[in-house]
Amino acid sequence: MTVSVDIDGGVAIVTIANPPVNAINRTVRERLLSLAQEFDGDPAIRTVVLTGVGALFVAGADIAEFDRPVEPPFLPDVIARIERAGKPWIAAIRGAALGGGLELALGCRLRVATGTARFALPEVNLGIIPGAGGTQRLPRAIGVAEAIRVVAENHTVDAAEAVRLGLVDALIEEPLLPGAIAFAREVLEKTLPPPSLDRPLSAPAQEVWTEAEKRIASRAKGASAPLQALEALKCGIEQGAEAGLARERSTFLSLRGSEEAAALRHLFFAERAALRPADIRGIAPRPVATASVVGGGTMGSGIAAALLNAGLSVVLVEQDAAGVSRARDTIAGLFEASRRRGHITGEELAERLGRLETSIGYDGMERCDLVIEAVFEDLAVKRAVFAALGRICRPDAILATNTSYIDPRLIAEGLPGPERFLGLHFFSPAQIMKLLEIVPTPETAPDVLATGFDLARRLGKIPVRAGICDGFIGNRILRRFRAEAETLVRGGVPIAAVDAAMRSFGFAMGPFEMQDMAGLDIAFLHREAARARGEPVPDLPGDLLVRAGRKGQKTGGGWYDYAPGDRRPQPSAEAERIIAPLIGPRKDMAGEAIVARLMAAMAQEGQAILEEGIAASAADIDLVEVHGYGFPRRRGGPMFQLGRADVNHA
Length: 650
Ligand code: 3H9
Description:
Layout: E1 3-8, E2 11-16, H1 26-40, E3 47-52, H2 75-83, E4 89-93, E5 96-98, H3 100-107, E6 110-113, E7 118-120, H4 134-142, H5 144-152, E8 157-158, H6 159-165, E9 170-171, H7 176-188, H8 206-219, H9 225-239, H10 241-256, H11 259-274, E10 290-294, H12 298-309, E11 313-318, H13 321-340, H14 346-354, E12 356-360, E13 370-373, H15 379-392, E14 398-401, H16 408-411, E15 421-426, E16 435-440, H17 446-459, E17 462-465, H18 474-490, H19 495-505, H20 511-518, H21 521-532, H22 541-547, E18 560-561, E19 570-571, H23 573-579, H24 591-611, H25 618-628, H26 638-649
Helix pairs in contact: 1-2, 2-3, 3-4, 4-5, 5-9, 8-9, 9-10, 11-25, 12-13, 13-14, 18-24, 19-24, 24-26
The structure holds (S)-3-Hydroxyhexanoyl-CoA.
């Protein structure tokens, strides 16, 4: 039974039991509606306590239903019925009350909660706005300025703040239910406050709206839901609750059917599925308390910072005193930047640095449960590291390489205990980027693989398993993406037109701006090495630019020119002249056509990756692109785009 009822001396206790998160689906809506009717007609019931089973109240509407047409009874009607019930409903909240869960609680006459309660309206993350009265009842319960932060800016209200704002009428210690029942009996003797929707409200000064609009628009990154949530809230203040509810519902319904919302739902489920791949479910990970990072460059220091942030102890290994001190400074600098932004306190900074040990050579490695190698991208150098690790580390310690291109099987050749080896490919800056490509070899043991996924969860990262090929999933698609962009340019499409098209699609930068930022020289050196091996690699525009000393921003120019100290790309006559021998006559192409070409190339490479078994699912490929390569979240990923093109043109 998804909704159960117990009666305790005139108090009906209604418990939503729809694990794992008590999401409100059609069955729950039907049952709540019929219970509200039934209780009103039952003279033995005086009041109702509504709660959720387990550690949370209700995580919102059932998102899985959003791919289907809306089905009655509709949640706004259920909540309106509860709000107008003759017998007052009281929400008893433990843990999260999110989205429709908070809206349901707001429809109750009063709310009690434990100290674990937290309240949010995360609908905008799903490309929608609250659709069951949240934009109207919340401002009337807690005030307009606070409600704007929750409705449109993702603010979560904790239990203490909820009491202060009047969202929660009483804090109750566990056990929740007896306390809530006693509270319900007590308030029956008093005059009840009016329902949330009937509470008086004063309109804020005009600046409150203009400032909120500015703030929200600047953070929206092209997403439309946050500003629309604000508009619905504002409509209800200026034109009254009834108009506000109508506006909210029509916006909710139209956004629910949008491409953007479908993309964000796709990622919501993909991100959760990624943490629990079917083939390692039930396999216990090895315990990891102390980890080592070999190599303290930008990548190694970022990985060490990520591990320290997650509470692990870290031994960072460098070759000499200068290397050790540089790495320590880099890591301290990363934490200091977090402290300045208010993400951590000075004490937390000191505590994190206190868990960092540095070592010249491999002292202290015998204590480590996991070692991540992040040295120079060179097979011989990496092999030498693993030869030493094989001698020094405990036989059960997991050994990982952070290589981005080299075949992990070659790195692990000759390693004693190859079953404990795998690739853990972080993305720079490693303390920030969410993606972790996990690359097992054929020998990797299942519990070692499971430890990789568990580590990702602990670091707050999105793990994606990748098979072995040149570039794994992400860099392989990146190469194809860049090659296609270059094909367009060689066909005469202006460089700036390609970049502008990708920016208007939602990337922070176009492919050529990105190369200028990262530097053109590494890819050039790869091609030169291949040429030196006798492989037939034709000259590309990038080769001509690097040979002319244009390696990107760091040399003052690459595909574009850069004024000193200015990262804004300026079209470059010099670059055009240098690459002219490889470029066809100018061809103008519409932005959508450019995007379509590049999307098709990415999706085609993705399809090949799937067919070769390098990625386990199309959704995994989308996660790689969104979390590692700046693919705009609201577009869902290249494989999602491919699927939608099929659906929309069918
Ligand atoms: C809404 O409410 C609209 C209304 O305004 C209007 C309606 C008219 N539905 O995250 P986890 C699944 S929109 C369906 O791993 P945690 C999730 O897929 C909703 N399924 O756990 C996973 O499934 P599986 C607004 C859901 O402990 C499992 O539950 N609400 C939903 O790390 C466990 O999830 C939100 O956006 C759902 N609403 O975190 C809240 N939520 O086991 C979204 C979760 O098969 N949810 N699942 O992989 C969350 O933020 C987190 O899930 C939560 C738990 C914090 C609750």
